[in-house]
Specification:
Structural class: alpha+beta
Strand order of the largest sheet: 5-6-7-8-9
Distance between the termini: 46 Å
Largest sheet: 5 strands, antiparallel
Number of domains: 1
Keywords: Signal
Length: about 160
């Protein structure tokens, strides 16, 4: 049975990598559209003109078998907000990342609203783990094209 689990794990890892390379498009507020392919995230207007681009935001499955869940998952839209959901690994932890942007119609800006993380211990998935949420108070005003995941990770955790 162990070998069967390993084969399933390897197959899942391959599917995740393939999915990350397949372009995915999402309708955003006010006629905008977000297309994700590889590390690129491109927002276009209704006529197809590029509004914003970011190559430091989207995660891909890594070429390793110890974390088959790495990478971009989906985009969720609600009102003038949209959230990029993806997963990362750090040691024994799955880290679910939620990068939420707000579209400001008056200025046409797409700015970072918050960056949230939930942690799951792969050794004990039922363990109670603290979540972390960074807001504009920690990262300042950042537009879509300037957001860098690694820079967000470098920021200190908020104090209570």
């Amino acid at each position: 049975m162990r070998n069967g689990c390993l084969l399933l794990l390897l197959a899942f890892a391959g599917l995740t990598t393939a999915r990350a390379q397949t372009p995915a498009a999402f309708a955003l507020p006010h006629g905008l559209r977000l297309t994700v392919r590889g590390h690129a995230a491109v927002i276009t207007d209704a006529k197809g003109g590029v509004v914003a681009r970011n190559n430091r935001l989207i995660r891909q499955a890594e070429d390793r078998t110890d974390c088959p869940a790495d990478g971009f998952r989906t985009v969720v839209v609600k009102g003038n907000f949209f959230t990029i959901e993806q997963q990362n690994c750090g040691g024994w932890f799955f880290i679910n990342e939620y990068v939420t942007f707000k579209y400001v119609p008056a200025s046409g800006r797409i700015q970072l609203h918050k960056f949230g993380q939930t942690f799951i211990d792969r050794r004990d998935p039922n363990a109670d783990m603290p979540n972390q949420v960074l807001t504009e108070k920690q990262f300042g005003q950042l537009t879509f094209g300037l957001v860098d995941l690694e820079a967000l990770y470098a920021l200190p955790a908020p104090t209570k």
